Amino acid sequence: GNLVCPAAFDLGEAMRVVILSVTEGDDKPLKYPDMFAGAHLMLLNKIDLLPYVDFDVERCIEYARRINPGIQILALSARTGDGMVPWLEWLRDQRNALLNARIAQLEAQMAALKAQI
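and the corresponding structure tokens:
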């Protein structure tokens, strides 16, 4: 969704990512705090446009961390591909962590069942 969509709804997602285009302005974390408070990651997109827009990356990061001190931040350009490798690695790492947690949970359940035999 966009920055004005309801961020408070539980959609069953494992992780929340907010994508902020630099063309939208560096004040968005303060303007829409709910969106950033619940996010695990903020993607700063369209960084290839930074020379052409009034956007202070450091100020935006400070605002986002004021709302959510633990938020991770990646910068990328979908157009040029800059930053895509860290984004894809983040997705892979999150998937692997979830799968490993599920495997551990299933192994514990299996051990509990075997103990009953």
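(Above: one complete record from the training split.) The chain has a mean pLDDT of 92.
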